[in-house]
C-alpha cells in the first residue's frame, strides 16, 4: 500500500514529462503551432465568407487577360498593352529586381567609402561626411526620392533642348539617352570569351590565395583580374571582325527615337535609395572599423604596410565580421523601400500588379498575394546570401 511520501517521490507521468526540459519544449512548440494554425484558419474562413458575400471568387485567371495599360520602362523583356497581366507582372517584378540589385551595389560602394572617410584624419572631409550623413538619415526617404525626381523634371531641359554630347548622348527631363549596341553574327564568341575570362579570374583568385599562404608572395589580384575580364573578350571581339554596330538615337517629333533610354524615374529612385541606405551603411562600417583593436593597425604599420594597405589587408577583413550582420538588414530595407517607386510613377511590381492590375480586375487578395510573395522571395534570397557570406567570413576554430 502506497503512502503519501512515496507518491511525492514518484509523481504521475504528466508531471514527470513536464519537468523534463526537452519534452516540455516540444509540448510548448506543439501548442504554439496549434494556436497559430487555428488563427490562420479563422482568417482564411473570414476571407472566404467575405468574398462569398461580395460575389467574388478566388482565382488567378485574370493573369491571362489583356492588361490594357502601358509600361514605359521595360529594359529586360518587351511589353505592349495587348499583352497579359502576367507579362505586365513579370515586367514589374524585373523592374523591382533591377532597382534592388543596382541600389545594393551603389549603396555598398558609397557606404564603405563614406564610412572610411568619416574616420579620416582630415578634419574638413570628416566633418562634411558627418553633416551629410546626419542630414540624410534624418529626412524620410520618400522626400529624397521626390527631391531627386523634381531635379530631373524641372532642372533638366526638354528633348528639343537636350544636353548634347557629340550628337550621340543626350540628357533630358525624359531620361538619359545613349546609343544601344546591335549584336551581329559572330558576337556569340565574345560571350564565350567573357565566360571563359570569368572562370579564369575565379581560378586565379583561388590560386593566388593559396600561393600567398604558402610562400607569402602577393600578386596585384585586382589589376590582373581586370585585365583578364576586359582583355580576353576584346581580343576575341577584334579577331571576330568587331561584330557589333551602334543604333544612334535621333530626335523625332517631341522625343528621341532609337538607342537606349534610362528613365528619370529609375535614376531618381535608384540614386535616392542608394545614398540614403549608404548613410546607414557608412555608420555600420565606421562602427566595424572602430571595433578592431588599434594594436592591429599599429602592428601592420610596424611591418612596413602603408596605411591604405593595412586598412585593406588587416582592418577591413576583421571588421567585416562585425559589419555583415547589420549590413544584411540595410539591404533588406533598400529592397522593401523600392515599393515607394509608385510615388514617382516607376512601374515596379507595386505599381503594376498592386496598382493598375488590382484596379482593373478587382482582385485585391490575389494581387496583394503576388506582391507579398515577390518581396518575401527577394528578402529570403538576400538573407540566404548574406548568411552564407557571414559564415564564410567567420573565424574557423582549429
Describe this structure in words.
This protein is of the alpha+beta class and 398 residues long. The protein folds into 3 domains: 51 residues; 225 residues, Orthogonal Bundle (MetI-like fold), CATH 1.10.3720.10; 68 residues. Helix content is 67%, strand content 7%. The chain is built from 13 helices and 8 strands. It has a 4-stranded antiparallel sheet. A two-stranded antiparallel sheet has the order 4-5. Helix 9 crosses helix 11. The mean pLDDT is 85.
What's the helix and strand layout?
Blueprint: H1 4-9, H2 13-19, H3 21-54, H4 85-117, H5 123-137, H6 141-154, E1 163-165, E2 169-172, E3 175-178, E4 180-183, H7 188-215, H8 221-239, E5 244-247, E6 250-252, E7 255-257, E8 260-262, H9 264-290, H10 294-302, H11 307-337, H12 349-361, H13 364-393
Antiparallel strand pairs: 1-2, 2-3, 3-8, 4-5, 6-7
Helix pairs in contact: 4-9, 4-11, 4-12, 5-9, 6-9, 7-8, 9-11, 10-11, 11-13, 12-13
Amino acid at each position: 500500500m502506497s503512502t503519501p511520501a512515496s507518491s511525492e517521490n514518484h509523481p504521475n507521468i504528466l508531471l514527470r514529462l513536464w519537468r523534463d526540459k526537452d519534452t516540455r519544449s516540444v509540448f510548448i512548440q506543439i501548442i504554439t503551432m496549434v494556436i497559430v494554425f487555428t488563427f490562420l484558419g479563422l482568417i482564411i474562413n473570414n476571407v472566404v465568407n467575405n468574398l462569398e458575400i461580395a460575389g467574388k471568387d478566388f482565382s488567378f485567371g485574370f493573369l491571362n487577360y489583356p492588361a490594357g495599360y502601358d509600361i514605359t520602362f521595360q529594359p529586360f523583356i518587351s511589353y505592349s498593352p495587348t499583352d497579359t497581366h502576367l507579362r505586365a507582372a513579370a515586367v514589374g517584378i524585373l523592374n523591382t529586381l533591377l532597382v534592388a540589385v543596382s541600389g545594393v551595389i551603389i549603396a555598398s560602394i558609397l557606404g564603405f567609402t563614406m564610412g572610411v572617410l568619416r574616420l579620416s584624419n582630415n578634419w574638413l572631409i570628416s566633418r562634411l561626411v558627418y553633416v551629410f550623413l546626419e542630414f540624410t538619415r534624418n529626412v524620410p526617404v520618400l522626400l529624397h526620392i521626390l527631391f531627386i525626381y523634381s531635379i530631373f523634371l524641372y532642372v533638366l531641359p526638354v528633348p528639343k533642348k537636350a544636353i548634347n554630347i557629340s550628337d550621340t548622348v543626350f540628357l533630358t527631363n525624359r531620361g538619359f539617352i545613349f546609343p544601344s549596341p546591335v549584336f551581329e553574327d559572330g558576337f556569340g564568341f565574345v560571350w564565350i570569351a567573357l565566360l571563359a575570362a570569368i572562370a579564369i579570374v575565379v581560378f586565379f583568385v583561388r590560386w593566388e590565395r593559396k600561393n600567398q599562404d604558402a610562400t607569402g608572395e602577393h600578386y596585384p589580384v585586382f589589376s590582373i583580374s581586370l585585365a583578364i575580364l576586359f582583355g580576353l573578350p576584346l581580343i576575341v571581339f577584334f579577331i571576330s571582325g568587331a561584330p557589333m554596330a551602334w543604333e544612334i538615337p535621333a530626335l523625332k517629333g517631341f522625343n528621341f527615337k532609337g538607342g537606349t533610354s534610362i528613365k528619370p524615374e529609375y535614376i531618381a529612385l535608384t540614386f535616392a535609395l542608394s545614398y540614403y541606405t549608404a548613410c546607414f551603411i557608412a555608420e555600420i562600417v565606421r562602427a566595424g572599423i572602430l571595433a578592431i583593436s588599434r594594436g592591429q593597425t599599429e602592428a601592420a604599420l610596424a611591418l612596413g604596410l602603408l596605411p591604405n594597405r593595412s586598412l585593406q589587408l588587416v582592418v577591413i577583413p576583421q571588421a567585416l565580421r562585425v559589419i555583415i550582420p547589420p549590413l544584411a538588414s540595410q539591404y533588406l530595407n533598400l529592397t522593401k523601400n523600392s515599393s515607394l517607386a509608385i510615388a514617382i510613377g516607376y512601374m515596379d511590381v507595386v505599381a503594376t500588379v498592386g496598382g493598375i492590375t488590382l484596379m482593373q480586375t478587382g482582385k485585391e487578395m490575389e494581387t496583394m498575394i503576388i506582391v507579398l510573395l515577390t518581396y518575401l522571395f527577394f528578402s529570403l534570397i538576400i538573407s540566404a546570401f548574406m548568411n552564407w557570406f557571414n559564415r564564410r567570413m567567420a573565424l574557423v576554430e582549429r
